[in-house]
User: What shape does this take?
Amino acid sequence: MRNGTPIRIIREPYFGALGTVTDLPAQLEVLESGTEVRVLRAKLNDGREVTVPRANVEIIAT
Assistant: This one.
C-alpha cells in the first residue's frame, strides 16, 4: 500500500466508503479505545478526508 492506492473501508463509521490513500504515517496513533495502531489517511470519493486504522481497509485492484 502506498499513496494513491485505491481502497474501500470495511468498518464503521465509514463502512463501504471508497477513496484513495493520501498518507501512511509511520508512528502509531492512539484510538478512542486506548489501543495504539497504524493508521492511514485517505481522501474519500465524496471529498471527506479521514484517518482510519490500516486494518480497516481493503485494497481495490485496478
Observations:
- The mean pLDDT is 94.
